[in-house]
Sequence to fold (763 residues):
Amino acid sequence: MKIKSLHIASFGGIKNLGLDFDSCFNVVYGDNENGKTTIMNFIKMMFYGSERSGKEFNKNIRKKYTPWDGSSMAGSIDFENNGRNYRLERIFGSSNSTDKVTLIDQNLGERETVTPDIGTKLFGLTLPAFERSIFIGQFGYPENNALAEGELQSKLSNMAFTGDETVSYEAVKKRLETARYELSSKSGKAGIYDKNLKLCFELEKQLEEENAQQATIKSAKEKAEQLTACIKSLQEKADGLKQQIDAENDIRNAQKLKELLSLKSQLDALNQTLTLDNGKIADEMFVRKVEFCLSKIENIESKIVAKQNETNVLENNLKLALNPTSDATPEKKKELEEKIQNLQKEKASIGERIEKLQKCEKPKATYIIWYVLALILGVLSAVAFSFTNLIAYAGLGLTALLFISAIALTLKAKAKVKSQNTQLLSLQLEENRILSLIASENSNLNAINTALGSSSAMIKNQKEIINQNFKDISAWQNEIKSEEETLFTLFKCYKSVDSIAEVKHELQGIKETAIKQKDLKQNINYILRDVGNISYTQAQEKLENLKTDNAVDFEKVKADYELLLQQITEQKTTLATIVNEVKNLSSRTGDTEKTKTQLLALKDNTSSQKEYLDSLDLALSVLNDAYAEVRQSYSSVLEQKASEIFGAITGGNYKNMTISKTFGISVEKSDVFGSHELDYLSSGTVDQAYLSLRLALSQLITDNEQKLPVILDDALAQYDDTRTKTALGFLQKYSENGQIIMFTCHKSLIDSAKDTGANCINL
Fold:
C-alpha cells in the first residue's frame, strides 16, 4: 500500500493544503508550529477517526483540531492498494459515528460508504497496534497497551506458523478459563460440576433407601426373566421356520435373482468403461460438471461477440463523428424520426393483429364425440344383427353417416387452423421485417445524432470506451483460456483432449453410456424392491442354496410357524401381566429404576465433565507451553530482524537486540560482552533502538502481504550528524520495498535527505 497524496480542506490550523508523495522515501520539512504533527494526526484520523475521550482539551483530539473559524474538519487521501487506486474522503463530525467516510475506487468510479475505522481493514491493524508498528512518533515507543501488544504478538506468531493473523492466544486462553470456571468455580460450590457432585450424593442416598423396598418384587422379576427366556427360545424356533417359508418366495423369485445378478454384471462392466483415473465413475454428475464448464466458455464467448459488436458500432459512430457525411443534417434527422415513428405505428398495428389471432379460440375437436357415437352405434348394430337384419342395416347406415360427418368436421377444423397459422406466420414475418427497418433507421439516426452532437469530450469518451472494450475482450479471452484449462484438466481424468470440439464429441458418448448406466440402476432397483432389498451377496447365496435344498413341506412348516406364534403371543400376555404387577409394586415403593437411570446419567455426565475439566487444564497447560515455544520461535525472528536494522543504523556499533513479551529492549555492543537495558544508553541510541524495533515489526507483520507505508514524526530528532546520515541512508534503502513518510523540523536533516535522493517537501 502506498499513499500518493493528501488534501486537507480544513483541519486544525491548516486549510486547502495538498501534498504529493513519492512511492519510496519522502521527507516533509517545516518549522515548529508549521503543522507537521497536525498532518500526521490528520493521516491517522482519516483512517481511524478518534476514540472516545474525556472533556479535557489535551485528551480530546477532535476538539484540539477543530478549526477556529468553526468550519468542519474535512479532507481526502489518495492511495494505491493491491494495484488499484482509491480516494478516501472524510467529513469529520463530533464523533466516529457522525463522521461521513467515503471510499472511491478510482479505477471503476465506484463510491461506497465505509466504517469510521476503515484503517483496520486496509492496514490489517487496530489503532493501538497501528500506533505501535508503522505509525512512529517522535519519542520512542508509546506506553504499554496489553491488547495492542497481544495483537502484534498474535499477528507475528500466527503469520509465522499458521498463516492466520486473526488467532489470538489471549482470546483462546480466556475462552478455556471461562469454560473451566463454568464447570468448577474457584470456591468449588457454584460450578455445574460442583452442583452435579452434590446431586449425585443425594441420589445415591435416595437409591439406598429404595433398594431396601425391592425384596417384595424380586420373585416377580425372576419369573418375568424366565418367561422372557422362554419367549426368546420360541422366537428363535419361529425365526428358523420363517427362513424356510421365505425360501418358498426365493424359489418364486429365482428368475428375478438371476436377472438381478446379470444386470449387476452388466452395470459393473459399464462402470469399468466409465471409470476415471481417480477411481470415480463418469456418471451424470461428471457430465453436468463438464457441461457447466462448456456453458461458462460459451457464455464468455457470447459476451465477447456482444462486446465486439458494440465496439464496431462505436467505431463506426466515431468515424462518422470525425468525418461527418453530407446527410448529417437536421432536416435529414427530422425525416428519419418521422419515418421511424410511422414504422412504429405500423408495427403496433401488426402486433394487435397478431395478438388477436393468438387469442382467437381454436376449433374444438367435436368430431371426437362423433367418432365415439359412431363406435357405440356400430357395436349396437352388431348386437342387433342377431335379432333383425333391418335394425342392423339401419345402424350400419347411421354409423357410416356419423363417420363421414366426423371426417368432414375434422377437415374443416384443420383447414381453419392452417389458415390461422398461415396468417400468423405472415404477420410475424412482416413484424420482423419492420423491426429490422426500425433498427436500421435507428442506427442511421444515431449516426446523424453522433455527427451533429459530437464534441471533443464525446469523441474522447468514445475512444476510452472502445479502448476499455478491447481490454475487456482481452480479459475475457484470457478467462476462456483459463476455463479451457479447467475443462481439459477435468476431462483428462477420462481422456486427454486437445480441443473443445473433441470434448463435445467425447461427451456425447459419455452421456449415452451414462443413460444406459442410469437405466440399469433403475431396473436393478425395481428388482431389489420386489425381492426385499437384499444385497447382491445375499442374492448369490439364495440362488446357490436353491440348488442344494431338498424338497420341503411348506404347508406343514407354515402350520408349525402359526402354532409357535400363538404360543409366543400367550407367553407375552402372561409376561405383560407380570410386568404390570411389578410396575404397580414399584410405583408404591418408589421408582428405583428412574432413580438409577438419573444417577447413572448424572454420573456419566459428571464423569464427562471431569474429563472435560482435566482436558481444559491440560489444554491450558499445553497452550501456555506451546505459546512459550511459538513466541520463542517468532521472537528470535523479530530479534534477528531488529538486530540487523539496529546494526545498520548504528554503523555496526551494536550487534544483538533482545525483545521481551511487552517489547522491552536490551542491546549488546559489538565490541563489549553482555547486554544492557536502554536506561544505560544515550537518548540517541535509545531512539535508534526503538526505530529498529518499529521497522522490524512493520516489515515482519507485512511479509506475507502488500507492504504498508511507515510514517515517522521526527524519529531522528536526537541523532547526531553521523547517526542521522547513517539512518537516512538506511531508510532510503529500506523504502525501496516499502514507502516511508518522515516529518521533521530540522533543516540539516532535509539537506542530508536530499543527498540520499529522497522526495523532500517543504511546508
